[in-house]
């Protein structure tokens, strides 16, 4: 079982995969379903930029006009010293560590790696891949740097790099104009196990109308979708390259696609632009999809929590820059975040735009907003034909909603903060509904102890089966203790708690929402009861969680309960802390949450705990590249896990590694044997002790820096 070390480190994500058979089959299949690739063919430049936006928003250039970003500076600019606040100084030290090129956080192109270290398997299956998560943390880091130093050039560089590398351009979405909101996709069921794949498309199942497709087209023209794909192969480790060229760095790739039991150890990496340059005669497509006559195609998957984090970062950047007198680059990048938020609305809808609730594949196809759940779901995805393979394109949302992905602050500012209000006429209203709905979701999922349980789905088992008769529902969607994936269970990692509730705490800090305070009061009390400050100067916070029961009621407009004194509310839904950890990334998320809560609630005891954790982290875990812990990776025994392939299927990775039944995680990734740390893993596979590693993950190091900076800001 791939458990807590990897899950703790970077949520084991499984994202939608999407495949198409040919021009008539406008997709698709989404899989496992993480947490977020290239034929040739000329694409003429010069797409529409769309009409003028909301007041105060500069126009955003079409993606095919994006210029290459500036290279990273040879060395970081010297940070401000002796600011008068030790925590702000710690932030500046860490910012310098992250930007020092010799420390290895960035590629030569200036792309943030998932981690400094290369031998790392979790959601990304190699350390020098990167994710939209890393990009969103980078933006957040540079927003805070601008607040501290008044230097906004680094934030501008982050957005320029994101637009060039992780937001697919028009050249990467060449047939996007072929999309029809009235024929958004073709249904394919999700399987329970990797062995259940490939699955067949079924055009008999009704698909709803995409309710925002025409609005987005009216607003921006037939432009490419402006959202981040979740996963890049920065160093071209696998050799797919961009758009099938086999050599370009920063290549869009995907991994998970085959049901909730497919862990990273069973996933098969594939290019997001499948030009049949690797895999078998049909590239990698017929591993996942039954059929004949496969078309070369492109397909991307968005991790909504990352795009929402980018919006969250730009809210603070705009606020802080305006307090300093304003900054034109911040204004321009805020407009880009607003546009990203416009397209992010795809995450608010059922996967196949079916009505909610839906308890059978034959349930009604929605023609309006009756397919909207208004939550930040696990993904949205889109794709289409490669040049020469047709002119079709498709889009899907997601039916699966995890508490760990919600971001009520992002929804609130997209609805209420003028510089971030998207251009589309319905967008602000959609996000206003979403902000309210997300807070309700947290409350519905809050356990008797205070932790936030898993989530809910409109598509039981990923194929619209009828959920168990006793399953409690949220606006018609059935409760799930571990939405989306179960190897490991998706909500057993405490990191999802701090990532998600941190956003609730920021939302509470900004709005003072009494409902958010009810949720936070109970959650903070639970965390404090399970956090230990030891006499030797160390500490322990929750790590792994175990859930029992379910919410006590079916939640809808008539059954809201934000009565914090109601001891019977969700009395049958429980969480137990089964292990603890001093993990620095998760601790930073906890401190960040406690700091915002303490500042708004004037809670001195919580403030003291946040300070103690910051001080102990710095004293115990500081190293030349940031802060880090030693990890023992027992899960690396799974380098020898066998892969499941369709009977008789045989193909090759670009480097010649054979893919067939009997292949293993390691055998189709033979380049891992060239890694300087491979000897430790090899010895373990031969019967030696589990290897120890010290990792510097980009998300963790930036969140640590942000925790120090936020404490220094709110408690000067």
From TrEMBL:
Residues 42-82 are annotated as: Disordered. Residues 68-79 have a biased composition (Pro residues). Residues 42-63 have a biased composition (Low complexity). Keywords: Carbohydrate metabolism, Cellulose degradation, Glycosidase, Hydrolase, Polysaccharide degradation, Signal. Coiled coil: none annotated. GO terms for molecular function: hydrolase activity. InterPro entries: 6-hairpin_glycosidase_sf, 6hp_glycosidase-like_sf, Endo-1-4-beta-glucanase_dom2, Endoglucanase_F_dom3, Glyco_hydro_48F. Pfam families: Glyco_hydro_48 (PF02011). Residues 1-30 form the signal peptide. This is Glycoside hydrolase family 48 protein. It comes from Polyangium sorediatum.
């Amino acid at each position: 079982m791939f458990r807590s070390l990897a899950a703790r480190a970077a949520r084991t994500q499984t994202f939608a995969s999407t495949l198409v058979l040919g021009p008539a089959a406008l997709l698709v299949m989404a899989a496992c379903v993480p947490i977020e690739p290239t034929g040739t063919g000329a694409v003429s430049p010069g797409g529409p930029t769309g009409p003028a936006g909301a007041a105060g928003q500069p126009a955003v250039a079409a993606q095919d006009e994006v210029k290459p970003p500036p290279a990273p500076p040879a060395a970081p600019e010297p940070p401000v010293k002796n600011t008068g606040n030790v925590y702000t100084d710690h932030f500046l030290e860490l910012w310098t560590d992250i930007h020092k090129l010799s420390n290895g956080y960035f590629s030569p192109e200036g792309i943030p790696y998932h981690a400094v270290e290369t031998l790392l398997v979790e959601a990304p299956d190699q350390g020098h891949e990167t994710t939209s998560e890393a990009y969103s943390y980078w933006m957040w880091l540079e927003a805070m740097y601008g607040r501290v130093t008044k230097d906004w050039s680094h934030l501008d560089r982050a957005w320029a790099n994101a637009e060039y590398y992780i937001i697919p351009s028009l050249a990467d979405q060449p047939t996007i104009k072929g999309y029809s909101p009235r024929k958004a996709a073709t249904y394919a069921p999700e399987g329970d196990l990797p062995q259940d794949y490939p699955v067949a498309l079924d055009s008999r199942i009704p698909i709803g109308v995409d309710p925002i497709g025409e609005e987005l087209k009216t607003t921006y023209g037939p432009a490419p979708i402006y959202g981040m794909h979740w996963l890049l192969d920065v160093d071209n480790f696998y050799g797919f390259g961009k758009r099938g060229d086999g050599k370009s760095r920063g290549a869009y790739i995907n991994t998970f696609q085959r049901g909730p039991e497919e862990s990273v150890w069973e996933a098969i990496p594939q290019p997001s632009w499948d030009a049949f340059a690797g895999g078998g005669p049909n590239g990698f497509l017929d591993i996942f999809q039954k059929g004949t006559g496969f078309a070369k195609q492109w397909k991307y998957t968005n991790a909504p929590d990352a795009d929402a984090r980018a919006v969250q970062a730009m809210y603070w950047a705009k606020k802080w820059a305006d307090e300093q007198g304003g900054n034109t680059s911040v204004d321009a990048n805020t407009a880009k975040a607003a546009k990203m938020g416009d397209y992010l609305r795809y995450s608010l809808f059922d996967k196949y735009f079916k009505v909610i609730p839906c308890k059978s594949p034959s349930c009604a196809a929605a023609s309006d907003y009756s397919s909207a759940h208004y939550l930040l779901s696990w993904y949205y995805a889109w794709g289409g034909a490669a040049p020469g393979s047709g002119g079709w394109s498709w889009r899907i949302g997601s039916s699966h909603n995890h508490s760990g992905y919600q971001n009520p602050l992002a929804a609130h500012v997209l609805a209420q903060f003028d510089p971030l209000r998207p251009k589309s006429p319905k967008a602000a209203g959609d996000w206003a509904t979403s902000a309210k709905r997300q807070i309700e979701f947290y409350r519905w999922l809050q356990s008797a102890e205070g932790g936030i349980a898993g989530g809910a789905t409109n598509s039981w088992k990923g194929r619209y089966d009828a959920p168990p008769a006793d399953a409690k529902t949220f606006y018609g969607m059935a409760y799930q203790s571990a939405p989306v994936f179960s190897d490991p269970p998706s909500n057993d990692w405490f990191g999802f708690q701090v990532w998600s509730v941190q956003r609730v705490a920021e939302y509470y800090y900004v709005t003072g929402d009494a409902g958010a305070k009810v949720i936070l009061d109970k959650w903070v009390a639970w965390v404090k009861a399970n956090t230990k400050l030891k006499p030797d100067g160390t500490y322990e916070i929750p790590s792994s969680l175990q859930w029992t029961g379910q919410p006590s009621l079916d939640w809808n407009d008539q059954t809201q309960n934000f009565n914090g004194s109601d001891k019977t509310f969700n009395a049958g839904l429980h969480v137990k802390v089964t292990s603890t950890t001093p993990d620095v990334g998760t601790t930073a998320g906890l401190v960040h949450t406690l700091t915002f809560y303490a500042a708004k609630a004037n809670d001195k005891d919580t403030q003291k705990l946040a300070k103690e954790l910051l001080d102990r982290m710095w004293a115990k875990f500081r190293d030349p590249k940031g802060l880090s812990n030693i990890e023992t990776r027992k899960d690396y025994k799974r380098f020898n896990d066998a892969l499941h392939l369709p009977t008789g299927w045989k193909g090759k990775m670009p480097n010649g590694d054979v893919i067939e039944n009997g292949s293993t995680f390691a055998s189709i990734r033979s380049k891992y044997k060239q890694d300087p740390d491979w000897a430790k893993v090899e010895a373990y596979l031969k019967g030696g002790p589990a290897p120890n590693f010290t990792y510097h993950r980009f998300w963790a190091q930036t969140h640590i820096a942000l925790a120090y900076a936020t404490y220094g800001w709110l408690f000067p």
